[in-house]
Amino acid sequence: MKTFVVSRLGAMVVILIALTGVMFVLQQVSPLDPVKAQLGAQASAQAVADRREALGLNEPVLVQFWHYLTNAVTGDLGTSYRTRHPVLSDLGSFLPATLELAIFGIAIAVVLATLLAFGTTLKWPGAQALRAVLFTGAAAPMFLLGILGLIVFYQNLGWVPANGRVAVADPPTGPTGLLTVDGLVHGRFDVVADALHHLLLPALVIAIAPAVAIGRVLRSSLMTEIDSDYARTARSKGLSEGQIMARHVLRNSMSSALSMTGLQVGLMFSGVLVVEQVFGWPGIGQYIAQSIPVADFPAIAGVTLMLGALYVVINTAVDLLQAAADPRIAVVGG
Q1: What is the rounded CA–CA span in Å between residue 108 and residue 106?
Q2: pLDDT, mean over the chain
Q3: Around Cβ 123, how many Cβ atoms within 10 Å?
Q4: What is the mean pLDDT of residues 260-280?
């Protein structure tokens, strides 16, 4: 098990270094001069030269990459050309909104996936209707699903707000930046309720596609395991199908579902960026959408590195959880 953990952590570090290298190369080949972007097109030649020297842009490329890598490791992602603030500071302002949306999205996805898998396997009433709704929703582009949701649930029914994170005038600003958590910490249950009201529709929109993917994998594993020898033995002892599922089948079916969950969590962040535009959600999606038109490379690179790091870390954590759930994986993979 120790060898498996070390190998996975080592692979994670290598991938993150490679991702940082890709962003460094893109910055090197970019036609945009970072010095002129900071100082402005009217800056004097002397000011440009002094700034290039201060930024280390006259040093050999390998030295520049080493500085870029070490700065990224310490959280120095450069300064945004647009906001004139450190990119890390900007990400700290926008990231909590995206994280909150993603967390609630994956929570809803896991619940829907479990209902889909167990319902269709055990033939619960209404399971086929849920399956049809989820598969139909997953077939639609996410932005279209969001627009349709707004038309139906906001414009026609008035059940949800149109955009934003909260309508309360003075929500708490800390300590986590997650309004549902901060509202509980400060005893502001009006903020919690309003934040959940705003979260419901966008989180549901980003949850549907992952729910179908996770649910299909989990259902396939459950169908395989429920016909296994140990399941038949448990059935012969008088256990109900639900008891067999809970006590025996579920753990042996978790490995593939966990793997798919890790993949979907990583992919979900790309969907979150789209959904934020549809719902006017003040997260990373808004930040990157404002940075791309003005070629704000430090901001674009910072978001890319952050999302890439999240994806790699999440999938590494899933690999470790799989090994904990099924020790055979560590033996084979280690």
Answers
A1: 5
A2: 82
A3: 10
A4: 81
Question: What Rg, from alpha-carbon coordinates, does the chain have?
Answer: 24
Task: For residue 223, count other CB atoms closer than 10 A to its CB.
Answer: 14
What per-residue confidence (pLDDT) applies to 36? 67
CA distance 107 to 4: 28
Structure tokens at 320: 């470790």
Q: Any bridge partners for residue 86, and if so which?
A: 79
User: How many Cβ atoms from other residues are within 10 Å of residue 41's Cβ?
Assistant: 7
Q: Which residues contact 293 (CB under 8 A, 6 or more apart)?
A: none
Residue 71: predicted pLDDT: 87
Percent of the chain with pLDDT over 70: 93
- Residue 125 CB: number of other CB atoms within 10 A? 7
* Token pair in block for residue 227: 């016909």
Angle, in degrees to the nearest 10, between helices 189-225 and 127-139: 110
Query: CA dist 248 to 241, 245, 281, 321, Å?
Result: 10, 6, 42, 18
Tokens linked to 263: 């993949």
Nearest to 89 by CA among 298, 312, 319: 298
Q: Which residue has the higher pLDDT, 113 or 245?
A: 113
Residue 307 backbone phi and psi in degrees, to 5: -65, -40
Q: Fill in the DSSP letter of residue 72.
A: H
Phi-psi region of 40 (alpha: psi -120 to 50; beta: other; left: phi over 0): left
What pLDDT score does 38 carry?
Answer: 67
CB 122 within 8 A of CB 241: yes
Reply yes or no on whether the pLDDT at 327 is more than 70. Answer: no
Q: Which residue has the tokens 């994280």?
A: 99
